[in-house]
Design brief:
heterodimer; A: alpha/beta; Pyruvate-ferredoxin Oxidoreductase, domain 3; 6-stranded mixed beta sheet; 6 helices; 6 strands; globular; B: alpha/beta; Rossmann fold; 3 domains; 7-stranded mixed beta sheet; 5-stranded mixed beta sheet; 14 strands
């Protein structure tokens, strides 16, 4: 893998994007043995409004712990897309919630759209798992960790009663992106 | 068996490092961005028979830490700059009463309340001078979550070994970011306990220098009774104004840390590509991580850059900094303040090379690009 791969999850505060970042960092570091650093917007910025969580993954030790040029970015809201899609590197990828982000921010990157919130609400019945749908989608899009590592990290994080729900959410997100890419 | 590895925030790693070192008391008052240290210990200390107390304020918290230490406990508090400001009186008390304790300062900006949720490195001079009177200070500045774990252990070791308060400073960036942290096995990292008295309660004197610059410390509650005061004291712990005793005490409290043997024991630095470096980036904490990135970028362009990273910030690494100043054409000092450690670098460099700072206090980290630009400017 590249020396340094940077992923940004952005959306509204409370959508579980920090958790999505933590799960991805755990999949990369604890399960796959890579180096990972996770950080997030903090304080007033993180309560409502646009919020972000960043994960840097590398085979080598990671020095600068914040994003420099982002390889892949998720935006769950229009506000987050407008604020955080800047900084995606040329040839990078932007994953958008198809319903929530009507206007695609312009840039030299590939844009993939899937209905993240709608999938969580209508196909799983719980909006709360939208972050796990998004995580599955990001892993399908980037291959930054394996599908199995991602799923295991999700299941390690959630209580027994919610494992099936989250497993379904992760795999729906993963498959929707894979279908678009084929 | 594979070692336990967990993805931890810097603050969580600090709490686990304290537990590894044998910390059994935390007295604190919550403050951003340090609160997770207290949060973890409030859950963990009761499980091992330790005590967690949230005091009425930061001053009370520091007092509780000194009191707990005098009963033999390894005692900790965690705060941020505003909390350290309030603790300063009692930090001085811990210095003169020679009481081991550890103070974590997760730095934000300032002065006063500043910007609680942003990172800063503007308390580094406070760590040395933040209490009145002549005194020694030890301050450690880890740069990663793993290092926060191990430096917290080392802070307890130094506090116990030299009978004094030791501060660990890191900024909000390292305090709140998460990295995989490997838990060392018991015995893998050295854990030092204070020297207990070798004489019985009748013959015990708490500041008896016939045992060396760091006299053994008895635990209250173990049968030893002695006097503790913030006044200059004689070896029995009672106040004195005798000129020779006061002079000797004042000098010993500094020499116990600044004698060559102690300095060699306390100092800790990391160097990266300094051997042939024409420009040294002198950086600590999270800023050193940006600096290492900058060194790699500069080397790609053929500029011979190297990184000097103090892990022990106080006592100041005078000898090595002076050597590097003679070797290099320039030293660049990036820090998230408006110029603090750069003054010390200038002091010991004594004009041997050019020195330039990179300063940022807007709540954003210093990025590698800013450091690279300053290196090119100064060369």
């Amino acid at each position: 893998m590249a020396e340094r791969y940077e992923i940004r999850f952005s959306g509204a505060g409370g959508q579980g994007l920090i958790t999505a970042g933590i799960i991805l960092a755990e999949a990369a570091s604890i399960i796959e043995g890579k180096q990972a650093v996770q950080s997030q917007s903090y304080g007033p910025e993180a309560r409502g409004g646009a919020s972000k969580s960043e994960v840097i993954i590398s085979d080598a030790p990671i020095d600068y712990p914040k994003a420099t040029v982002v390889d892949a970015c998720l935006a769950m809201t229009q506000e987050a897309a407008d604020k955080y899609a800047v900084g995606i590197k040329d040839g990078g990828v932007l994953l958008l919630d198809d319903d929530m982000v009507p206007n695609t921010p312009e840039g030299d990157y590939k844009v993939i759209r899937i209905p993240i919130m709608r999938t969580a609400k209508e196909e799983i019945g719980r909006e709360i798992v939208a972050n796990v749908v998004a995580l599955g989608a990001m892993i399908a899009l980037t291959d930054v960790v394996s599908r199995e590592a991602g799923e295991t990290a999700v299941l390690n994080k959630v209580p027994e009663a919610f494992k099936d729900l989250n497993k379904k959410a992760f795999n729906l997100g993963f498959e929707k992106v894979k279908k678009l890419m084929n | 068996m594979a070692k336990k590895v967990a993805l931890l925030q810097g603050n969580e790693a600090c709490a686990h490092g304290a537990l590894y070192a044998g910390c059994s008391f935390f007295g604190g008052y919550p403050i951003t961005p340090s609160t997770e240290v207290a949060e973890v210990l409030s859950g963990e200390l009761p499980k091992i028979g330790g005590k967690f107390i949230q005091m009425e304020d930061e001053i009370g918290a520091m007092a509780s830490v000194i009191g707990a230490s005098l009963t033999g406990a390894k005692a900790l508090t965690a705060t941020s700059g505003p909390g350290v400001s309030l603790k300063q009186e009692l930090i001085g008390y811990a210095c003169i009463a020679e009481t081991p304790c550890v103070i974590i300062n997760v730095m934000r900006g300032g002065p006063s309340t500043g910007m609680p949720t942003g990172p800063g490195q503007s308390d580094v001079m406070q760590a040395m001078w933040g209490t009145h009177g002549d005194h020694a200070a030890i301050a450690l500045v880890p740069a990663s979550c793993q290092e926060i774990f191990s430096e917290t252990v080392r802070a307890f070791n130094l506090a116990e070994k030299y009978r004094m308060p030791v501060q660990v400073l890191y900024d909000e960036i390292v305090g709140h970011m998460r990295e995989p942290v490997e838990f060392p096995e018991p015995g893998e990292l050295e854990v030092i306990d204070r020297t207990a008295p070798s004489v019985g309660p009748e013959a015990y004197k708490p500041y008896d220098t016939s045992f060396g610059d760091v006299p053994p410390l008895a635990a209250f509650g173990s049968g030893y009774k002695y006097h503790v005061t913030g006044l200059n004291k004689a070896e029995d712990g009672f106040p004195t104004t005798k000129a020779d005793l006061v002079d000797a005490e004042e000098r010993r409290q500094i020499s116990k840390v600044k004698n060559p043997t102690a300095l060699a024991d306390i100092e800790s630095n990391e160097e990266y590509l300094t051997e042939d470096a024409e420009v040294i980036i002198w950086a600590y904490g999270s800023t050193a991580r940006s600096s290492r990135y900058a060194v790699n970028e500069l080397r790609k362009e053929g500029i011979k850059a190297g990184l000097f990273r103090p892990i022990t910030l106080w006592p100041f690494p005078e000898k090595r900094t002076a050597e590097l100043a003679k070797q290099a054409k320039a030293i660049v000092v990036p820090e998230m303040n408006l110029g603090q450690m750069i003054l010390e670098v200038e002091r010991v460099a004594m004009g041997a090379c050019k020195i330039a700072g990179v300063h940022r206090v807007d709540g954003e980290p210093i990025n590698p690009g800013q450091i690279i630009a300053q290196v090119k400017e100064v060369l």
